[in-house]
Specification:
Blueprint: E1 3-10, E2 18-24, E3 31-40, H1 43-49, E4 59-60, E5 65-72, E6 84-87, H2 96-99, H3 109-113, E7 125-127, E8 130-131, E9 145-149, E10 153-155, H4 165-168, H5 174-185, E11 194-197, H6 201-213, E12 218-222, H7 225-233, E13 238-241, H8 246-253, E14 258-263, H9 268-276, E15 278-286, H10 300-305, E16 309-312, H11 321-332, E17 342-346, H12 350-358, E18 364-368
The chain binds cyclohexylformamide and zinc ion.
């Protein structure tokens, strides 16, 4: 049985998203039909709109969806009809990365997340009878219904029954990316200094995670004073304006160097500065999107001599359900108060929500698409 839905169609950077009637394909045995309650907006959605990533347009975006399972295929064990679920990225489950519980580095990431169809090339959605690109991150959740998969659906634990889905939705991408960079990818050790460059969703999630890990000091760097103030409220012990010679201020505060630096900006000069601030054995984590043509330069003696690491990190090295459940537990315990970043918008106001994100007014816009 197919499903009628309404979805926000993205046709490129110079066109507003338009909400139009679509039809979702009949469920396969390993798929779930999710009635979407809410979906966060992430910069990756906008990078696709702007054709900076190889996802075909037009397309239905949205990859921080949460909702209620409406139906499941015969082979699905991840959730059952009526379950509250959050969705994250999809993966193949069969490659060396997936075998090693590192699905953000899935060898088959593109066909499972970004090719516009199911991994086997069949469309999962039509618009006016013609195939529409969808299955974005295995969900395309800027819609009233989405087809999800056994591997990208996480059941909300009973302990979080009182937390609304509009708050849980964004945990499956930006928040997981920042927190996981600190807690999983860099395995930050207590007592060592960390600096986080950029205080958007990913940077502030990293700062909250650094507080959980016991980093000291925790330094936030940005050009936006309001965001630096928020970073201080949520865990940063120090904040420096990037325009105010932040590297010199960091050197003054941490003369032995940083144990960890996390770049969320994707700006080459910022990454190279961060690298130059590392203590022996220090790690600089790179999570910001940069231009595909960019090349970084590091001094070789400093690199090898101090045992320093430059680490590219995708999705915070999340392993899916295990890490997302851990983050929900931190949130319930008050250690991960990311609700401070969220502002909700009705689905119909998707273009306004995007504008609020791009102007810097709102850190994490979340679309409310249906009721619980
Ligand atoms: C992704 C990148 C690939 C792994 C999961 C998260 N980021 C999306 O914005
Ligand atoms: Zn994202």
């Amino acid at each position: 049985m197919t499903t009628l839905a309404r979805a926000a169609i993205c046709r490129g950077h110079d066109r507003p998203f338009t909400i139009e009637p679509v039809e979702l394909a009949a469920l396969r045995s390993d798929e779930l039909l999710v009635r979407i309650v809410a979906c966060g907006i992430c910069h990756t959605d906008l990078a696709v709109r702007d054709e900076q990533l190889p996802v075909p347009l037009p397309v239905v975006l949205g990859h921080e969806g949460a909702g209620i399972v409406e139906a499941v295929g015969s082979a699905v064990t991840a959730a059952a009809p009526g379950d509250r679920v959050i969705m994250s990225f999809n993966s193949c489950g069969e490659c060396p990365s997936c075998d090693a519980e590192a699905p953000t580095y899935c060898y088959n990431f593109f066909p499972h997340n970004w090719c516009g169809t199911r991994a086997d090339g069949t469309p999962s959605m039509t618009l006016a009878g013609e195939p529409m690109n969808a299955n974005f991150f295995g969900q395309s959740a800027f819609a009233t219904y989405a087809i999800a998969h056994q591997r990208n659906v996480v059941r909300v634990p009973v302990s979080a029954a009182a937390i609304p889905l509009e708050r849980l939705a964004p945990i499956g991408c930006g928040l997981m990316t920042g927190a996981g960079a600190v807690l999983r990818a860099m395995e930050v050790r207590a007592g060592l200094p960390i600096a986080v460059f950029g205080t958007g969703t990913v940077g502030i999630a990293a700062i909250m995670a650094a507080r959980i890990a016991g980093s000291d000091p925790i330094i936030a760097v940005d050009v936006n004073g309001d965001r630096l103030a928020l970073a201080r409220e949520l865990g940063a012990t120090h904040s420096f304006n990037a325009a105010d010679d932040a590297p010199a201020r960091i050197r003054e505060l941490c003369p032995q160097g940083l144990g960890y630096a996390l770049d969320t900006t994707g700006i080459n000069s910022v990454i190279e500065q961060a690298w130059g601030l590392l203590a022996p054995k220090g790690i600089v984590g790179i999570v910001g999107a940069s231009s595909p043509a960019d090349t970084l330069t590091f001094n070789e003696a400093q690199f090898m001599g101090g045992g320093r690491t430059v680490k590219g990190i995708l999705g915070g090295d999340s392993n899916g359900e295990g890490f997302l459940t851990e983050l929900i537990e931190h949130h319930l315990a008050g250690r991960f108060p990311y609700e401070r970043l969220i502002k909700t918008f009705p689905f119909e106001r998707i273009n306004e929500a995007i504008e609020a994100s791009e102007s810097g007014l709102v850190i994490k816009p979340v679309l409310v698409i249906g009721s619980e």
